[in-house]
Inverse folding.
């Protein structure tokens, strides 16, 4: 048991029982307040912790960091220091905010400089993403897509059970929660026997995904094994990997999705560390056929993370449209990373790798409107009486995720994105 | 006519008639010498020009640059200043090294600090690549691939003549000329009715491509038109976009090539500016069917760049296996950039976009071994008597490119990469 995960720990900062951010979480993010510069923060309850202030006040003595690591617009600076350093940093925070330690809590003048109400801060992109990779690792999703677009009898393509299929995504358009997006425009071909047309996408969709960010990897030409994978993963966030289904359908053969995805991928702003997620590891599915040796793994690499998606029409109430779980993955992060590097591909500090849409067996757990509305044939009822086949203009899509074990709830907060009309 | 392109210009630095680097070129790159730090350089003949030294010696007065822009390991610092600034910088170099100007040439002490023999420097990656996009814009290549793998009667897929098809590539594994690569390992399925196997790729291939690098673009949600495209493109290099055909065949459905490409893409180290390439613009092919309005363009956006590929077996002579030209592109850079951003996708300073394999109509102009050896059925004879269907261990693949017009030859130098055996 990592000490900072001890369920008996309590912070001197008040934390609501339903909060995603007890002292056992201590995620990392980038925030700013008003005109101040961006800096590194953590969070307990409804308080954001200013790590730059803690550094300046001398609370990070004997840790391998400099002030510029905290006065920065991306967590890459602290991630560059590696896993041991970031684990030590989280442990130091755990100690500083533990009710049994009074170094900081007794110093009101310091507390005032360090803690900020969460509604006073703007959360920014947590990481400068180098390369973004999107996997396709949920069997439920791959089966649904194969059933909808190809052959229900052979829904999974021949390679799917052998390879954690993935593809390169667009890093520049990964944006934090709260940043609004515009409905994308592009080429579609509504009728197979007519010429394509140009216009706003009519089939805008969300994709419920989880993403992880990496530390610096090995040099080009070397691979990372499943046993080594944990050393290279810093933490996770929720991702809404926006998709324009009509653009995708016309463009994706033979080189894969491109503009149907690259207009935006939204993420939750707090990176929850793998250290914090350790207690929520769970067994993965039996993999049959037996995977090739480089994809075998020991121990548990799946995580029990409850996920939900809500749609909030403008001036109306939110309707939950999906309840899912990250444990529904067929391929886990260790296998994804081992596969990604088996050809010698190098990973770098700040790379982001997403799960692909997460869908369970049950219809209510499907992670996209494509699946939930079964390609538009089963519209979803909203609380306000309206229906959705896909996402409408001015809808806000909200994804949330949290784990529960040993009486401790750790969560990711949310990624919330409003869709503006095409320009 | 841009003044720095004037064919009558001569430098006080001696330049061989066959050099790729007359004073009309003045490309940009990153170099280092011995233990010194990386810095920005240009080149005339066999001399590398140290731009950091020129800055320190005061030759860049009234240009919008700081020393840190030149004492850097990536051209992004100067590209961040935008097109006008980099054009002015090249014009300043043109003046300093023009035989009619003696400010610098008369100062031997300065000349010694500024010029370095090309064989004394190590050329590094010129650009920190944000996102890397690979297009598929040569009709010859797309037709050949379609003929080999699908249906000769319908070689082009239905979207190909409507869309500059492209996909996201891996930025981390883009490497400069001279960096050796290892043959990649991975999953392949040699027989469709048997399970896949793991091992070194047996079908390692080069892909002859040209790539361009971008200035900062517009914010997420806005597009760049074909008419605006020139303002966002800094310059070009040659790219060998390595491919493992057997890995690709098994992995690429339905999300496109992934590990078959991500182990390495090699580039020539000098970025030749679009300003320098201006005199080599040429008309593109007639596009039929007529493209959608956002892909229409005025003026010429194709470039007449002679390209060649050689294979040099170890301890043996090089054999030229391909003579091609960049003008064989169907879709041009303006169309590629307009398409890439039509959905609102943002481009950033340092993004790299490659052409896709460039193949002309003639067999000798095919830009990959897959096409040259027609999937292995027509082995290529080397000068040493050996044969190649694909690339062997310890082969060095060398690509070169240059333009000729008005008595001026401007080139890219070469991208040369030796293939080591799998580890």
């Amino acid at each position: 048991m990592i000490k900072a995960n001890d369920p008996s720990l309590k912070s001197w900062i008040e934390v609501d029982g339903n909060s995603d951010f007890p002292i056992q979480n201590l995620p990392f993010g980038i925030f700013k307040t008003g005109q101040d510069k961006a800096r590194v923060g953590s969070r307990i309850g409804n308080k954001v912790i200013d790590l730059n202030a803690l550094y300046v006040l001398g609370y990070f003595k004997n840790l391998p960091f400099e002030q510029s690591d905290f006065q920065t617009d991306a967590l890459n600076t602290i991630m560059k220091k590696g896993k041991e350093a970031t684990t030590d940093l989280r442990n130091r925070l755990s100690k500083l905010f533990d009710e049994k330690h009074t170094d900081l809590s007794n110093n009101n003048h310091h507390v005032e400089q360090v803690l900020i109400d969460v509604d006073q801060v703007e959360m920014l992109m947590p990481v400068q993403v180098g390369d973004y990779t999107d996997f396709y690792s949920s069997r439920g999703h791959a089966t649904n897509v194969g059933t909808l677009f190809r052959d229900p009898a052979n829904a999974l393509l021949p390679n799917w059970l052998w390879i954690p299929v993935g593809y390169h995504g667009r890093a520049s358009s990964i944006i934090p929660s709260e940043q609004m997006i515009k409905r994308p425009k592009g080429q579609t071909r509504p009728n197979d026997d007519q010429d394509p047309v140009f216009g706003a996408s009519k089939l805008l969709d969300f994709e419920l995904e989880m993403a992880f960010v990496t530390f610096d990897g090995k040099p080009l030409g070397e691979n990372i094994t499943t046993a080594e994978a944990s050393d290279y993963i810093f933490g996770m966030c929720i991702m809404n990997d926006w998709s324009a289904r009509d653009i995708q359908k016309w463009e994706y053969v033979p080189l894969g999705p491109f503009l149907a995805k690259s207009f935006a991928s939204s993420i939750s702003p707090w990176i929850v560390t793998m250290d914090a997620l350790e207690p929520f590891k769970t067994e993965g599915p039996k993999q049959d056929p037996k995977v090739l040796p480089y994809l075998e793994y020991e121990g548990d690499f799946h995580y029990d993370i409850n996920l939900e998606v809500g749609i909030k029409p403008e001036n109306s109430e939110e309707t939950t449209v999906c309840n899912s779980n990250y444990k529904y993955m067929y391929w886990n992060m260790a296998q994804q990373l081992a596969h990604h590097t088996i050809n010698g591909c190098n990973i770098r500090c700040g790379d982001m790798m997403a799960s692909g849409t997460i869908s369970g067996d049950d219809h209510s757990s499907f992670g996209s409107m494509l699946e939930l509305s079964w390609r538009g044939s089963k519209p979803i009822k909203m609380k306000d009486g309206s229906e959705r086949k896909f996402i409408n203009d001015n809808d806000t899509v909200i994804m949330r995720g949290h784990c529960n074990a040993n009486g401790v709830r750790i969560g990711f907060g949310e990624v919330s994105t409003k869709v503006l009309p095409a320009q």
Summary: Residues 83-97 of chain A form the longest helix (15 residues).
